[in-house]
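Encode chain A's predicted structure.
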Amino acid sequence: MKKLWVYVCICVLLSNMISVTVLAEPAGDFRYEVLENGTARITAYSGSQTAVTIPSVINGYAVTAIGDQAFYACSSLKSVTIPSGVTSIGDGAFQYCMMLQDVTIPNSVVSIGSNAFSRCSSLQSIVIPSGVSEIKDNTFSNCESLRSVTIPKGVMSIGGWAFYYCISLQSVTLPEGVENIGCSVFAYCTSLERIAIPSSVTTIGQGAFLYCRLLRDITIPKGMSHIENNTFSYCESLRNITIPNSVESIGEYAFYNCQLENVYYDSSEEEWNRIVIGDANTVLTAAVIHYRDASALQGDLDANGILDTTDARCILRVTAGVTALPDEQMRIADMNEDGEINTSDVRCLLLMIVITA
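Encoded structure for chain A:
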């Protein structure tokens, strides 16, 4: 009986040591492993084709994952199609695929690893699936040809260096719901001219927009309390910035070597003077500070003290590009205070007119 008990114990120990994956034979140019749930993860690719369609089923196993560095430095790869059913793309999965120009990512993907497309220097555009909630560190760093990126509404966090040195990126739309923008996310995006930071953002990391030399206007969202060191250093075209009264401190070199002309502050001069401003921000303090007129009614563009259809028509003309407004009036027209004048502001104003009628 004692020997039987020892035998059982040994079997239990051995069973606990068995890996959650089972290595399988190569399938053509692909290597894969079978996961505990009976699906396959692609672990390597040894082919030399320029266009690759990853199979949805491999040797009878449904493919659900692209493993870490599975296509690392595939120098011939120009196009890749990831099948529906894949839910995760591992760390560095396509890193250093320097000829890769086109990637089709299915909506089934909910996780993209850090460095997944880092240094894909020929990649021109990317659509991130709607199920992804986080863009991890360095995901698209050094994608020097990347011109456009579609970030879905579900993304809440953008990790450090995610778009670092994407020198061809001209504009980015960050969806409402993003809360965190990491360190150096858009640093050295030297073609970036405009970016709307949603009101949901509460933190922006150090150097987030460092050397964005063409960036002209920025609106800091109301939820932020601190502007970090070097956030806008060397943004040489930055002329106007809107700062909310929630900001309590501004870090060193935050606006170093910018060409700021106007600072629109969302409160009084007394409140402005309470902000702790770090060293090397002379350009900020030397700019013209426009304090908010406490008596100004948001949306009252004709300054008659009431909200009416005249104000709504004025905003409509702005959204249609028929007319332009001075900066101060633009702030009054921005009903939802997202830094842009659009149809959302018109709807908001019309709602206010109905409520106050």
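The radius of gyration is 26 Å.
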